[in-house]
Amino acid sequence: MTRRTRLGTFVAAGAALAVLFVWALTGLHAFGDFQGEYGRILNRTAGSQRHVTNVVAAIVFDYRGFDTLGEESILFAAVIGIALLLREARDEGERRIDVVRSDFIRAVGLFAVGPTVLVGLYVIAHGYLTPGGAFQGGVATASGLVLLYAAGRYRAYRAASPKAMVDLVEGTGIGTYTALGVASLAVGSAYLANVVDLGTKGTLASGGTIPILNAASALAVIAAVVLICHEFLEELMTPA
Amino acid sequence: MSFLPYALAAWLFFVGLYGVVTSRHLVHLVVCLGVMQSSSYVLLLAIGYRTGKKAPIFTSGVPVKLGAVDPVVQALTLTDVVVSVTATALILALVVEIWKRSGKLDPDSLRKKET
Amino acid sequence: MNVLVPLAVAVPLLGAAALASLGHVSPARVDDVVAAAIALAVTVFCVILIFQSSHGTIHYWFGGWQPRNGIAIGISFSVDPLGAGIAALIGALMTAALVQSIDYFEEEVPPHFFVLMLVFLAAMVGFAFSSDLFNMFVFFELMSTAAFALTGYRIEHRSVLQGAINFAVVNGIGAFMLLVGIALVYGRTGALNLAQIGQVLSRHGPDGLVVVAFALIVVGLLTKAGAVPFHFWLSDAYAVAPAPVCILFAGVMSDLGLHGVARVYWESFSGVLGGHADGVRAVLIGIGVLTALLGALMAFLQSALKRMLAFVVISHVGVFLAAIGLLTARGLAGATLYVVADGLVKGALFCAVGHLARRVGHTDELIAHGRGRSLPITGSILAVGALGLAAVPPLGTFVSYALVDDAAGRLGDRWLPPVLALATAVTGAAVLRAVGRIFLGLGPDEDDLLVSVPRGEEEDEGERNAPRRGFLLWGPAVALLAAGLGLAFAPGLADHAIGHAERFVDRPQVARETLHGATSAPTPPAHEHVGTSSYALGGASALLAVGLAWVGLYRRRIPRKIRAALDATFGGVVLRLRLLHDGVVGEYVTWLTVGAAAITGLLALLTR
User: Fold this and answer.
1) What ipTM was estimated for this complex?
2) Which residue ranges make up each domain of chain A?
3) What average pLDDT does the segment C101-119 reach?
4) Beta partners for C68?
5) Could you tell me if A232 lies within 8 Å of chain C, comparing CB atoms?
6) Alpha helix (H) residue ranges in B23-70
7) Each residue's pLDDT tens digit, C163-176
8) How do residues A60-96 score in pLDDT, each as one tens digit?
9) Selected residues 47-106 of chain B with any CB under 8 Å from a CB in chain A
10) What residue numbers bound the domain in which B105 lies?
11) Rounded (5°) CA angle C565-C569-C570
């Protein structure tokens, strides 16, 4: 097909599909008037059933915790996949220039690493109490680590996150999550059932297995982001 | 106002799809995939919205009776974002490999040579 | 609480996590054996589940969240013998693939490969069991992620890169369509559990939203399955992935997309669309037949074995889709049995191709002409497998075909079985022709009708050292083939399949069991008798396969006038078809859009 034929075919098919799609959308409820029972029930009962105040976190790590296991696995598979795809032997010698020359950027950037990591950890830790959680906080924390590269030098970044350790952390993150589910099985309950004491609502010690799963996911997310950046940087730092 | 969010989702969907079909640069193609993915976030969140209600976070002092927007779509969107990010990362790894080996980033240049 | 259900997914994931953390310290062969052992364990779990679930579908609620007042709060897996059968197939194919991997690769395989294979295993099993719409999406994406990375294993080759990226982009868009469909369904029903969605939807008739949502979900699943016109990525990707990975792709990954369509239709949409079943039937059977025939034709036009087998997979996906599209219990039973038997056969074929690649260095029938003479076992596997593809009686694939034939007959669609038999015959013929060329040295080693991979592009290329333990490469193939064809001799298999299918399609009863904890009714007894017309069609298909293979080999001997006439009629079409499969992702996505618009539009028209 030539590009013109392709464009013509696509515009025709796309227009037809668009009309059908919009027609379907008109069948939806009016915006702002959602009636779904599932969400309503969870809003009403999650607090008392699980002693957490962030209902979304309760859904992600408890009611639909199995979905999150799948999602962690996707993250895990992607990291391993990228490592597999970009795996050829790389020459350790030459490197591109990897040091930021401007003192001002270095000062501001490196100064920001600490607070960024701290804020990230805070968001993770309080994920089931206030907005936040493993994913949001995990990415923030990991970006603090990547800041070491952006504002400093590549070698410092690599030293702060040695590959073998990060691999181990990634494997541990997902391993813990999966194993916790098996532990619930061992206690005679269903897989990933919340079998730990639920604690007091509104404090850090609440939610039973939710904080544990939250922490495990956070570990996996941080390790994953750091590893992905690591792989790409290795790839692009080495002259072709 | 009431149909606009849904219309926005549809618009993003088709703009992204158009971008993928006509793209001349692999990184641009990946970004267009990202636009399509944003369309799904907008659709999900728009579906779960309830006028006048707040976020489904009931920290001390906020009575549960007040109700909130649908929390399930938020959990779904969270999962969706993670899934999209990982797919993007993988495709970008492939793009980096293509660039390294052939120096070309035009999707059309990947056309097969037939005997 | 049946612990085997979650363990079937959790054990491979734990194994993957362990291999990721510790795999570097042990040699690749140890990692491989550990992974193979895990896969074998999962296979055993699933076989046990087949028997445990034959008295009543097992509903497993994760996190202990049982439904309240008929509303599903958590995520569930529904394990019935049909689904467990497919899961057992997945386990068996993965075990075979990992056993072959022990000696297939010459280089030291990084542990990442085995990690991804185990994650892939968990994802496929999870998808087969899941009865929550969003959970199905999550496992669908997990399957895809692991699959892209595994496809790109031999990243040094241009064709591999192209195959992997087309796979990733097209599959990604398909996944996205699936997600939009799910969002629409959630918007209408406020539910994600398949049975509950079915309950809410069946209270009213179908409207635009319901039909479009169903269409988008089907498009997403059919993209993974590789139905026409969503199939272009499949022939590129399956041709370049390493042989052990192809065993899984061809044997079961595509068919899982169809299993998804069946589950979603029967549990969620059969109530609301049931009154318009004829319209849905027409669309599904239509796509199925188109896919079956196009796939078969393209398969016959390939000289590279892996690409040929990729088109064989596409063609058979069409056959299964047509069977499911009959929308009856018998059709579903036949389709599931066929998926299992044919999956084992296709797995065996790819396994044998892997052995051929390792010993001869080429899998293109023109280049490897006559070089397979020293590999009689591999050649026999391919030849018998080819006949299995053509559903020759009385073997396993034939029994399934006969069931589909019967199902179609009861609906009055008497034209369908011969068309499907034609497609399977052509696919069998293509493989037989290749066997003739490679293992018996028959026919010329040049044929301008066939599409070839240019020299230097084939990723399995080059002379290699003979593997130390050759039986690890062809042994699994023999086992798979024996299992697939031997299914014919399992007593009462067809009867049981029909009985379980009858339970599967009874939507209201399934909803009662899932959401209200009702106990299962006993399986209705069934008795299946293979009709003479089925034997006739099966036999004809096998004979046609042999005949067409002969024609393929000795085309030049056909009188010139006839050849010229055939060329004039079909030449243009064949050329255009070949040019369409040219690897440009923008075109593939355009065809996806065309397919999506067509399916959605037709469904909308036919369900008014």
Assistant:
1) 0.94
2) 57-237
3) 88
4) C71
5) no
6) 26-48
7) 899 999 999 999 99
8) 888 888 899 899 899 989 988 988 888 775 555 555 5
9) 47-52, 55-60, 64, 67-75, 78-79, 81-83, 86-87, 89-90, 92-94, 96-97, 100
10) 4-114
11) 115
